[in-house]
Design brief:
2 domains; 14 helices; alpha+beta; Asp-tRNA_synthase_2; nucleotide-binding; Aa-tRNA-synt_II; cytoplasm; elongated; EC 6.1.1.12
Length: about 550
C-alpha cells in the first residue's frame, strides 16, 4: 500500500524502537491481493532493492536486508527494509504474520512477497513507486534492543559550524585588520574542534559500535568513494605504463629521519613501521622499473589529536622517471582531474548519500594547470595582511586563507604550490639553486642554506585549502644525498645509497593520504570520518 500523510486525522506518534517522533503516518486499508501458493513462495528468487521498479509489478520477490524502520498499526505494520542506501516499504498483515511485530529494528530479515505499485510516491524510500505485500518473513539474526546507535537517524543533516563575523574596530576598518580577526576566529574554531576529539561522546560511541555505525548511508557513500579513488588511481597509472609494487612495512632504523616513527624489535634489530614507501620506490626506479606505484598503509607516531591527523593511513604513492621537474606537478594535476571526473560520473548515488548527512559545495576545478611559486604565494598572503616567512612552511590557517584567495582569483579548489623552502622538506629533495642564489644564504652562519640553496624542487597539491599531496624531484647525487641525510639525522640502508652509485635516472614522485583526499573531495571536516577503523593519538576502540 502507499504511504499517505494524515496529519489532520491522526496525531504524531513515536517510533516504538527509537522513541523518535516520525512526523509521518501511514494510513491504508488491507490490500486485496491474490492468494499465493506455497510453491511460488519457495521458488521466489532473490532480488536487489535498487533493481525493483514498477515494471516488476505482480512478481513474487525475495529480498534480504536490515529492518530500517518499523511503524505499527492495529491490524498491520509498515516496515522499511534497507540494503546499503536502498530502501523499500513492506506491508505486513498482523493477522497473517502475528509474530512480525516482535521483530526489532536493525534485525537482518528475509522477506518474500508480491511486488505491487504504490498509489502514491513513498518519499521516505528509494523504491518510491513500489512496495511489497509480505507473505513470509524469516529473521536471519535478531538485533538487540535498545540500540546503542539509532541508524535510521544518522542521515539527519549535520549543520556546518556557524562562524561569527569579525568585529570591526573604530579606526581599524582596513583589510589587514579584518583578515587578522578572521584568522583569530578560525583558530578558535580549530581549537574547539581539537578539544572535542579528546572527549567527544558521539565519536566514542561510533568507534565503540563501529559495525553498527558503518550502516549509515553516509558511511556507505564515503567508503565506496574511497574505494573508487583507489580504483581510478590504479586505472590512470596503469594506463600510463606504471606497474604496481608492494614494499616492506618493517624498515631498518629511521629511514626518513625525525622522531615520528613507531619503533619495534625485529629479532635482534631495531626496526620501524614504514612512514612511506619512499626509499623502496626510488630503488625500484633506479632498478629500471621506470614507473611504479603502490597503495598501502603508512604509519606516523604523531601526538596530534586534530581533525586531519591519523597515525595509520592509506598512502597512494607513485615514482617515475622524468626529464625535468615541471613534469611532476602537471602529471599529478592530470591524475587528479581524471579521478575527480571519474568520481563525479560514476559515484552520483554515493555523493548524494554523503551530502544528505554532510551538506557541502561541489568541488570546483577546471582543465588549467594552476601552479603557483611558493614565493608568489607569500606575496598573495602579504597582500591580504598575513606575513609569511618565505623560508618557512605555511601554517594551517595561512594555508586555508591562501586556498580561499586562490579560489576567489582563479575559481578553482585545486592548485599546486611549487618550489618550497628546502628546510621544510625531506632530505631526499633535490635543491633548486638558481645562478643568482649559488653560494648565498638568507642569514649569516646558515651553512645548510649556503650549501644547498634556499628552495627545493618540491611541491604540494592543495585541495580546498589543505595539502593533500607532497611531491618532489629526488636527489640522485650520492655525496649530496648522504650529506642531506646526515643533516636531518636519517638512518638509511646502505642498499639505498648504493642504488645511486651505478647510474640513476632523474626521477620524482608523490604521496597522498587516501583518507584526507576522500574527505577533501567530499568537503568533510575530518580525515577520521574517512577511515574505516581510525588510528589516532588516543585509545584504540576496535
Amino acid at each position: 500500500m502507499s504511504e499517505i500523510e494524515t496529519k489532520e486525522k491522526e496525531p504524531e506518534v513515536k517510533d516504538k524502537e527509537s522513541g523518535e517522533v516520525t512526523g509521518e503516518l501511514l494510513q491504508t486499508a488491507q490490500p486485496e491481493t491474490p492468494s499465493i501458493s506455497t510453491e511460488a513462495i519457495l521458488d521466489a528468487k532473490y532480488v536487489q532493492i535498487k533493481d525493483l521498479t514498477g515494471a516488476d509489478e505482480g512478481k513474487i520477490v525475495r529480498i534480504r536486508g536490515f529492518l530500517h524502520i518499523k511503524r505499527e498499526k492495529k491490524s498491520f505494520c509498515f516496515f522499511v527494509v534497507r540494503q546499503e542506501i536502498y530502501t523499500i516499504q513492506l506491508f505486513v498483515d498482523n493477522i497473517k504474520l502475528p509474530e512480525a511485530k516482535k521483530i526489532t529494528v536493525e534485525s537482518f530479515i528475509d522477506i518474500v512477497g508480491l511486488l505491487t505499485k504504490s498509489k502514491q510516491d513513498i518519499k521516505s524510500c528509494t523504491a518510491h513507486d513500489v512496495e511489497i505485500q509480505t507473505e513470509l518473513i524469516t529473521v536471519v539474526t535478531s538485533a538487540e534492543s535498545p540500540l546503542p546507535i539509532q541508524v535510521n537517524q544518522l542521515a539527519i543533516p549535520v549543520a556546518a559550524p556557524v562562524k561569527k563575523p569579525p568585529k570591526k574596530e573604530k579606526g581599524k576598518s582596513k583589510d589587514k585588520e579584518i583578515e587578522k580577526e578572521k584568522e583569530i576566529e578560525k583558530e578558535k574554531e580549530e581549537d574547539k574542534d581539537e578539544e572535542k576529539l579528546d572527549n567527544n561522546p558521539a565519536l566514542v560511541t561510533s568507534l565503540t559500535f563501529r559495525s553498527l555505525d558503518l550502516r549509515s548511508q553516509a558511511n556507505w557513500g564515503i567508503f565506496r568513494i574511497s574505494s573508487a579513488i583507489c580504483r581510478l588511481f590504479r586505472e590512470f597509472l596503469t594506463a600510463n605504463d606504471f606497474i604496481e609494487i608492494h614494499t616492506p612495512k618493517l624498515c631498518p632504523g629511521r629511514s626518513e629521519g625525525g622522531a615520528n616513527c613507531f619503533e619495534l624489535k625485529f629479532f635482534d634489530q631495531v626496526a620501524t613501521l614504514a612512514q612511506s614507501p619512499q626509499i623502496y620506490k626510488q630503488m625500484c626506479v633506479c632498478g629500471g622499473l621506470r614507473r611504479v606505484f603502490e597503495i598501502a598503509p603508512a604509519f606516523r607516531a604523531e601526538k596530534a589529536n586534530t581533525l586531519r591527523h591519523l597515525c595509520e593511513f592509506t598512502s597512494l604513492d607513485f615514482e617515475m622517471e622524468i626529464t625535468q621537474y615541471e613534469q611532476l606537478p602537471i602529471f599529478a594535476l592530470n591524475m587528479f582531474r581524471f579521478i575527480f571526473d571519474g568520481l563525479n560520473a560514476q559515484c552520483k548515488p554515493e555523493i548524494a548519500a554523503v551530502r544528505q548527512q554532510y551538506p557541502a559545495e561541489d568541488l570546483v576545478y577546471d582543465s588549467t594547470d594552476h601552479i603557483i611559486d611558493f614565493r608568489d604565494a607569500c606575496q598573495i598572503l602579504k597582500s591580504a595582511g598575513i606575513e609569511q616567512d618565505p623560508l618557512e612552511d605555511v601554517g594551517t590557517e595561512a594555508e586555508r586563507l591562501l586556498g580561499k584567495l586562490i579560489k576567489d582569483q582563479r575559481k578553482t579548489d585545486i592548485y599546486v604550490l611549487s618550489k618550497f623552502p628546502l628546510a621544510s622538506r625531506a632530505f631526499y629533495t633535490q635543491p633548486d639553486v638558481p645562478d643568482e642564489e649559488k653560494g648565498t644564504g638568507e642569514s649569516e652562519g646558515s651553512k645548510e642554506k649556503e650549501r644547498f640553496g634556499k628552495y627545493g624542487l618540491a611541491f604540494d597539491v592543495e585541495l580546498r585549502g589543505e595539502e593533500i599531496v607532497s611531491g618532489a624531484q629526488r636527489i640522485i647525487d650520492v655525496d649530496l644525498l648522504k650529506e642531506r641525510a646526515q643533516a636531518v639525522g636519517a638512518t638509511i640502508p646502505q642498499s639505498y645509497i648504493d642504488a645511486f652509485r651505478y647510474g640513476a635516472p632523474l626521477h620524482g614522485g608523490i604521496g597522498v593520504g587516501l583518507e584526507r583526499l576522500t574527505g577533501k573531495f567530499l568537503g568533510l571536516n575530518s580525515a577520521k570520518k574517512c577511515s574505516l577503523f581510525p588510528r589516532f593519538y588516543g585509545p584504540m576502540y576496535c
